[in-house]
Amino acid sequence: MPDPFYITTPIYYVNARPHLGHAYTTIVADVAARFNRMQERDVFFLTGTDEHGDKIIRAAQKEAITPRAYVDKISGLFRDLWPQLNIDYSAFIRTTDPSHIAVVQQVLQKIYDAGDIYFSEYEGLYCFGCERFYTERELVDGKCPDHETPPEIIKETNYFFRMSRYQEWLVSHIEANPDFIRPERYRNEVLSFLSEPLEDLCISRPKSRLQWGISLPFDDNYVTYVWFDALLNYVSALGYPDGPLFQKFWPHVQHIVAKDILKPHGIYWPIIQKAAGIPVFQHLNVHGYWNVDQSKMSKSLGNVVEPLELKNVYGLDAFRYFLMREMVFGLDSGFSETALVGRINADLANDLGNLFSRVIAMAHKYFKGVVPHPDPGVDPELTRNIRADAISAVRDFEIAMTSFAFHKGVMAIWEFISRMNKYIDVTAPWVLAKSKASTRQLQTVIYNLLEGLRIVSGLIFPIMPDTSASMQRHLGEDTEKPYYQLLRLKQWGRLPSGNTIPKSTTLFPRIELKPKTEDAEVSEPVIPEPPVFKPEISIEEFRKVDLRVARILKAEPVPKARKLLKLEVDMGEIRTVVAGIAGSYTPESLVGKQVIIVANLQPAKLMGILSQGMVLAAVEDHHCTVGTVETVVKPGTALS
Ligand code: MSP
After folding, report:
1. Do the beta carbons of residue 154 and residue 147 sit within 8 Å?
2. In ligand 1, which atom is closest to the CA atom of 230?
3. Which of 19, 20, 25 to mutate to test the pocket of ligand 1 (most atoms within 8 A of CB)?
4. pTM listed for this prediction
5. Is 296 a catalytic residue?
6. Based on CB atoms within 10 Å of each CB, which residue in 191, 276, 349, 452 is the most buried?
């Protein structure tokens, strides 16, 4: 059995709504989790919210609600957002969970008993935004580098964690484990920081100043510094110290953070672990910032991008794809909708989408949609190169994804897509189709292309899970089974011959941008003017209508009725539906289409046939166009 895999995101502060930056880190963790599932590992994926401290109190005061009501509200926003981005986490931790609080107190007591926490008076430069003391050396022009505000001088008695005692150990641990902090630039940054003497960390705040925190177990007049509390979420969520999840997953932990929180993760956290006797994490994976107009996207700068808005306009998989392809993990990236649309049109609509529809269309044209048998008797060259390309794509993908080089993983898939497009040009199936003598070659070429699509659809699983499943369904693979296992993708020739596949659908429609106007920030996608609508209805009224996706299995004319067609459809169950679309469609052209049916309409007899539903269609000047769904979904899937 391969090793388990444990992946974490930072736990996000609840002083602001989730934005693209949070979504990026959490999607990266989801991609890493899914990739590890492809390798048949048991995966535990943790995310959550960081809910104590000054910041939160101030945000709650602004909204004039209690801290408890405030943290519940914003934490809920994060928790509800992730499933909408297809983020499949295993657990969501909140630092206000009683089980987390108990672990923090237990670890504090342990370190205190070991003599690594002491009480002392301290006067220092404190940034309220960061909730920490700064040394002169860390300030830029006398100001906090993050908030660009001067820190205040504070004199207090507090508890301190003897980090200095562990400085040498940490340096040698980082030097002995080159991948401990990656990419290398961040490892170097931490080492450079550690080249100066490390100061002890103030880990308490007097309750006279702040109550919203975890009380120190050895002094009830103080609460715990928010970072000391937050970092322990990674172990408390697994039931540290004795829980079975902790035993199983902790030895395989990998963290993901952006460079803003490198210091707490690269310095405080390993030292806390060492002092508490917790085995130190495996890897800290650090990425750069999404910038808008050269500045880090952040609530305080007011330049945040809402992930749900992008999803709603461009589609979830296109959005996830863009994030993974555009950012070189570790470096900063600029976000713009123009770049997003560029990638959708070039990589998704053009390269992948066209390949998919071209291959499926050829399978229909030459073999009536039946997956042909590859013929082992034909020139082995016809298969050798494309198979070798597939194998090296899977290998390059695996190497890149294992080392968190996601953009390279995506590039390995797209390299294979481009090889497949070239394979079509070189083998020219339309020429092979002209002569009976080359039927066996044609069978082999089309089979190889469909097999290539199977492999592409498996490889895109971590990045675009919906498109992956929809391509697989189209090819007749059972999406309930783990079709995306890397092992299966490494084996050429698994796609069974003889299945009939539906006609092609558009995976990614092209997006046209309105030309940029002088004062518009980005070009806007063209959305047509809405026509005049009927009076509004409530959502409850709308929900009464049960809309389902149905695949047309058979279509035939209704005798003596010029406009009617009798359809046999699969919508989870087989039904007969009579539709007035004969003027716009031949029966054959409808077979295989996925249409939308009103499933709970009272059955009605039309020309003596009982119609058990109604097909939705756009009617324009007596011409009907049936409504279809863009990608292949299970028959009977509800529309909502
Ligand atoms: N609560 C702490 C983390 C504690 S972890 C034990 C915190 N929270 S945060 O809400 O500020 O989240 C910071 C993280 O959000 C970054 O490390 C990164 O993962 C993500 N990002 C926030 N803005 C971002 C960008 N503009 N670009 C990329 N990632 C961004 O720090």
Report:
1. no
2. 6
3. 25
4. 0.81
5. yes
6. 452
